[in-house]
Design goal:
mainly alpha
Length: 175
């Protein structure tokens, strides 16, 4: 559904903003991955060299893994690298392919909206209690779910907008 005319400036601005958000998410997940690696190194050092296991490492690692998983999944939606089966899409005519891409984007947006709404409810429900050993709100465990869901929703809607104006540049979607 792409055409040769340039997209409206508002769409180009939206694309730049979404790209910057995705870049920030990559930085957050990259830093979280480095921190997980460092604290597990500290865990091994503490356990086998100091003979004193740091008990807080597991709880912090769980928070970081949640961040990596859900924020990373949102970036996968933005980059169109999420798990999908493209065999059917590539075997059907262009109009059917366009319909399948729209359906995929709508389903992903709906899934992101559900993650956002129910993740926010869970985050608010759990915010009053503390995670043992690290004494931070329990709601932090589900905050990455909430943020990731919101980002999946925003990135999917961005794909739909680009598709509607004929500026969908995803390689696997519409040629």
């Amino acid at each position: 559904m792409s055409n040769t005319s340039p997209p409206p400036s508002s769409v180009r601005t939206m694309v730049r903003i979404l790209d910057r958000i995705a870049d920030a998410c990559r930085i957050v997940t990259g830093v979280a991955l480095v921190v997980v690696t460092v604290i597990f190194g500290w865990l091994v050092f503490g356990r086998y060299v100091l003979n004193a296991t740091p008990t807080w490492v597991e709880q912090v690692a769980l928070l970081l893994v949640m961040t990596i998983a859900f924020i990373g999944a949102a970036v996968g939606v933005h980059d169109n690298t999420h798990l999908s089966v493209s065999l059917v899409r590539s075997a059907v005519p262009r109009r059917v392919r366009t319909a399948l891409v729209v359906c995929t984007d709508v389903i992903m947006a709906g899934f992101g909206a559900l993650m956002l709404v129910f993740g926010a409810r869970l985050t608010m429900f759990k915010w009053g209690s503390l995670i043992p050993l690290i004494q931070v709100p329990e709601g932090l465990r589900s905050l990455p779910l909430t943020i990731g869901g919101g980002l999946i929703l925003v990135f999917s809607v961005g794909h739909l907008i680009r598709l509607c104006v004929g500026f969908d540049e995803r390689k696997d979607s519409i040629e």
